[in-house]
Design goal:
With 466 residues, the chain is mainly beta. It is 3% helix and 42% strand. The strands form six sheets. The protein has a six-stranded mixed sheet with strand order 1-12-20-19-14-17, with no helix packed on it. The chain has a six-stranded mixed sheet with strand order 11-10-13-18-15-16, with no helix packed on it. Strands 22-21-24-28-26 form a five-stranded mixed sheet. Strand 2 and strand 3 form a beta hairpin. It is globular, with a radius of gyration of 21 Å. It starts with 13 loop residues before the first strand and ends with a strand. The relative contact order is 0.15. Bound molecules: CU-O-CU linkage and copper (II) ion.
């Protein structure tokens, strides 16, 4: 593929303050349950669009004081207990789902299925030990199109003391906003788009900023953790102005780091890059989106100081996470068909309904969050190996996310590169993929499209592991 021309998307970048983001980790005590981090879901105003302050943005703050700006990056340690107390200062019920973390079912944040609604003024305690290191994220699982669309997406970094050291680390939370004149929110979706690829935002941001620029050491090695938290957008990312290698995908180390060319990243997915910054002060490495006909800038890194003269070839593979390998000779095979379905009205729910059904998994459209859901796709035996034969029988891409478990992509009719274990597979139009997993986490685990309009209009189901 052709290298991108820098000229095409360097315009309009705004220099912002330095962001050497290393070392902000929260010290956790080994063994004992730590004091909970207070996570307060609340409203704020935010300058997101160029032409006005957006009222009624939703965010999380640490502590009980008022918070402005995007939800904090939550730092945890692999294998160490973490606790958070969610306070709800919104005007509707909410929950927190820890996307990609393989934690106990009761901590998974799915209302009705794994925990009660957290009503305004109430709180809920989450306590768990992340088994895997990497880049993950957190978001509500209630009225999700509105709450996620209004701002409630934050990045989680699970640190591993065995990770290689970098000269700087930048965390990027990529998402769009549906804003109209003066920065006011407009309708969160259009039904005709929900029945297709999903409704796009009107303002594109990284860390709630349009084309932010971060200062990092010249000639240094920078770890960039990218989380695609938008409700709709699939990115095709690429970097201009500096070489980069891909070191992890969806929180899991790649077997061998490989050069970044173009990478498709769907809603819910993450990418960890190692970037070797240019030598001279002021030079930039620019992250762009190359999907569609006109590439645009996501964010840029600006080299500062005298060159550290680091070498990208010094980057070694990250340690792998302890994801069990399925026993393919014994694995039971389960077909999962993603289809469109005859449009009909959806049932109302405490966590919001979009009012339509357009999609189905194995011919069954999800009825919404209810105390009386449909039957599980299948009851899996705890410890058993399974192969899911996922068939996308639609002309649209679907990032399919499974809670509580990681799976390995074994084969696909649409791809040659098979990524490391993941929690979210971006199924291309008409793709058929086989993925393998060990059912090693008991409970009810939802599987759904992470284009939230699809999730909320039928493309959701669940497994029961007993
Ligand atoms: Cu990131 Cu069920 O979600
Ligand atoms: Cu979808």
């Amino acid at each position: 593929m052709p290298m991108l021309r820098r000229r095409t998307f360097l315009q309009g970048s705004v220099a912002l303050g330095g962001a050497f983001a290393l070392g902000a980790s929260v010290a956790a005590k080994t063994g004992a349950t730590p004091d909970p981090q207070i996570l307060t879901a609340q409203f704020t105003d935010a300058q997101i669009a160029a032409d006005g302050v957006t009222p009624k943005v939703m965010t999380y703050g640490l502590g009980e004081r008022t918070h402005t700006g995007l939800p904090p990056v939550l730092r945890m340690r692999k294998g160490e207990a973490y606790a958070a107390r969610l306070f709800n200062r919104l005007d509707e019920p909410t929950t927190v789902h820890w996307h990609g973390l393989r934690i106990p079912n009761a901590m998974d944040g799915v209302p009705e299925m794994t925990q009660p609604y957290v009503y305004p003024g109430d709180h809920f305690d989450y306590v768990f030990t992340p088994p895997d290191a990497g880049t993950f994220w957190y978001h509500p699982h209630c009225n999700t199109l509105t709450q996620v669309g209004s701002g409630l997406t934050g990045v989680i970094v699970v640190e591993n003391p065995e990770d290689p050291a970098f000269d700087a680390e930048i965390v990027l939370n990529l998402r769009d906003w549906r804003l109209g004149a003066g920065g006011k929110f407009i309708d969160s979706f259009k039904p005709r788009d929900a029945a297709r690829g999903g409704t796009y935002g009107t303002v594109r941001t990284a860390n709630w900023q349009r084309e932010p620029v971060y200062d990092v050491p010249a000639g240094g090695l920078v770890r960039v953790r990218i989380a695609a938290t938008d409700v709709t957008r699939i990115y095709t990312i690429g970097l201009a102005g500096a070489p980069a290698t891909v070191i992890a995908l969806d929180g899991n180390a790649v077997d061998a780091p490989f050069p970044l060319d173009r990478l498709e990243v769907g809603p819910g997915q993450r990418v960890d890059l190692a970037i070797r910054m240019p030598e001279s002060e002021g030079e930039r490495a620019t992250l762009g989106n190359f999907r569609g006909s006109s590439p645009w800038t996501i964010a840029a890194l600006r080299a500062v100081g005298t060159s550290l003269k680091r070498d990208l070839r010094d980057i070694v593979a990250l340690p792998t996470n302890p994801v069990a390998e399925a026993d393919l000779s014994a694995a039971k095979r389960i077909p999962i068909d993603l289809t469109a379905t005859a449009e009909h009205k959806a049932t109302p729910s405490i966590c919001g309904s979009l009012g339509y059904t357009f999609w189905a998994i194995n011919k069954t459209p999800w009825p919404g969050d209810t105390s009386d859901p449909v039957a599980p796709i299948e009851e899996l035996k705890l410890g058993g190996s399974y192969v899911l034969e996922i068939a996308n029988r639609t002309p649209h891409a679907h990032p399919i996310h499974l809670h509580g478990l990681s799976f390995r992509i074994l084969a696909s009719n649409k791809r040659s590169f098979l990524p490391p274990p993941t929690d979210t597979i971006l199924l291309l139009p008409d793709e058929q993929a086989e993925v393998a997993l060990v059912a090693d986490n008991p409970g009810d685990w939802v599987i759904h499209c992470h284009i939230i309009e699809h999730q909320k209009t039928g493309m959701t189901a669940y497994f029961r592991i007993v």
